Amino acid sequence: MRSLSLCIAGLLMSGAVMAQPAPPAAPGTDANAALPALPGREVLIQVCSKCHSPLVVTKQQLDAAGWKDVVNQMANNGAKATDAQFDAIVTYLAAAFPASR
Protein backbone atom coordinates (compact mmCIF):
# COMPACT_ATOMS: atom_id res chain seq x y z
CA MET A 1 0.00 0.00 0.00
CA ARG A 2 2.87 2.38 0.84
CA SER A 3 4.41 1.71 -2.58
CA LEU A 4 1.15 2.63 -4.30
CA SER A 5 0.90 5.86 -2.29
CA LEU A 6 4.48 6.77 -3.16
CA CYS A 7 3.87 5.98 -6.82
CA ILE A 8 0.75 8.17 -6.93
CA ALA A 9 2.56 10.98 -5.12
CA GLY A 10 5.43 10.72 -7.59
CA LEU A 11 3.06 10.89 -10.54
CA LEU A 12 1.31 13.93 -9.11
CA MET A 13 4.59 15.72 -8.47
CA SER A 14 5.91 14.81 -11.93
CA GLY A 15 2.90 16.31 -13.64
CA ALA A 16 1.97 12.98 -15.22
CA VAL A 17 -1.39 13.21 -13.50
CA MET A 18 -2.90 16.68 -13.49
CA ALA A 19 -5.00 17.67 -10.52
CA GLN A 20 -8.32 19.07 -11.60
CA PRO A 21 -9.34 22.64 -10.84
CA ALA A 22 -11.80 22.95 -7.99
CA PRO A 23 -15.46 23.28 -8.94
CA PRO A 24 -16.72 26.86 -8.91
CA ALA A 25 -17.90 28.20 -5.56
CA ALA A 26 -21.42 29.36 -4.96
CA PRO A 27 -21.94 32.99 -6.00
CA GLY A 28 -20.91 35.41 -3.28
CA THR A 29 -18.57 32.97 -1.53
CA ASP A 30 -14.78 32.76 -1.50
CA ALA A 31 -13.79 29.37 -2.90
CA ASN A 32 -10.36 29.89 -1.36
CA ALA A 33 -11.45 30.95 2.11
CA ALA A 34 -9.13 28.34 3.67
CA LEU A 35 -6.12 30.32 2.40
CA PRO A 36 -5.02 32.86 5.03
CA ALA A 37 -5.22 36.51 3.99
CA LEU A 38 -1.49 37.27 3.84
CA PRO A 39 0.63 39.01 1.21
CA GLY A 40 1.02 36.74 -1.81
CA ARG A 41 -2.38 35.03 -1.50
CA GLU A 42 -3.78 36.52 -4.69
CA VAL A 43 -0.63 35.68 -6.65
CA LEU A 44 -0.86 32.07 -5.46
CA ILE A 45 -4.51 31.87 -6.49
CA GLN A 46 -3.82 33.47 -9.88
CA VAL A 47 -0.83 31.30 -10.78
CA CYS A 48 -1.71 27.97 -9.18
CA SER A 49 -5.39 27.81 -10.10
CA LYS A 50 -4.49 27.53 -13.78
CA CYS A 51 -3.68 23.84 -13.19
CA HIS A 52 -5.21 22.81 -9.86
CA SER A 53 -7.11 24.07 -6.87
CA PRO A 54 -4.88 26.35 -4.81
CA LEU A 55 -6.35 24.62 -1.75
CA VAL A 56 -4.07 21.59 -2.24
CA VAL A 57 -1.44 23.49 -0.25
CA THR A 58 -3.62 23.46 2.87
CA LYS A 59 -2.76 19.79 3.37
CA GLN A 60 0.98 20.45 3.66
CA GLN A 61 3.26 22.13 6.17
CA LEU A 62 6.80 22.80 4.99
CA ASP A 63 9.66 25.13 5.75
CA ALA A 64 10.68 27.79 3.22
CA ALA A 65 13.15 25.42 1.51
CA GLY A 66 10.46 22.75 1.19
CA TRP A 67 7.98 25.21 -0.31
CA LYS A 68 10.68 26.47 -2.67
CA ASP A 69 11.19 22.88 -3.86
CA VAL A 70 7.44 22.46 -4.45
CA VAL A 71 7.18 25.74 -6.34
CA ASN A 72 10.25 24.88 -8.42
CA GLN A 73 8.68 21.52 -9.27
CA MET A 74 5.48 23.26 -10.38
CA ALA A 75 7.54 25.67 -12.51
CA ASN A 76 9.33 22.69 -14.06
CA ASN A 77 5.90 21.17 -14.76
CA GLY A 78 4.87 24.28 -16.69
CA ALA A 79 3.54 26.80 -14.17
CA LYS A 80 3.86 30.25 -15.69
CA ALA A 81 4.90 33.18 -13.49
CA THR A 82 7.71 35.67 -13.10
CA ASP A 83 10.56 35.00 -10.66
CA ALA A 84 9.07 37.69 -8.40
CA GLN A 85 5.69 35.95 -8.45
CA PHE A 86 7.24 32.57 -7.65
CA ASP A 87 9.17 34.20 -4.79
CA ALA A 88 5.94 35.77 -3.49
CA ILE A 89 4.23 32.38 -3.59
CA VAL A 90 7.07 30.71 -1.65
CA THR A 91 7.03 33.51 0.94
CA TYR A 92 3.25 33.23 1.27
CA LEU A 93 3.29 29.45 1.65
CA ALA A 94 6.10 29.50 4.22
CA ALA A 95 4.14 32.03 6.31
CA ALA A 96 0.68 30.51 5.82
CA PHE A 97 1.59 26.82 6.08
CA PRO A 98 4.87 26.57 8.02
CA ALA A 99 6.50 23.30 9.01
CA SER A 100 5.21 21.77 12.21
CA ARG A 101 7.60 22.07 15.09
Task: Describe this structure in a few short sentences.
With 101 residues, the chain is mainly alpha-helical. Helix content is 48%, strand content 0%. α2 (41-48) packs across α4 (83-96) and α3 (64-76) crosses α4.
Descriptive notes:
There is one protein chain. This protein is mainly alpha-helical. It has a domain at 35-101: Cytochrome Bc1 Complex, Chain D, domain 2 (Orthogonal Bundle). The chain has four helices and no strands. The protein has helices at residues 2-14, 41-48, 64-76, 83-96. The radius of gyration is 14 Å and the shape is globular.
The CATH architecture of one domain would be Orthogonal Bundle
Helix content: 40-55%
Q: What string, H for helix and E for strand, traces the elements in order? A: HHHH
What gyration radius follows from the Cα positions, in whole Å? 14 Å
Number of strands: 0
List the keywords:
mainly alpha, Cytochrome Bc1 Complex, Chain D, domain 2, 0% strand
What does the secondary structure layout of this molecule look like, with pairings?
Blueprint: H1 2-14, H2 41-48, H3 64-76, H4 83-96
Helix pairs in contact: 2-4, 3-4
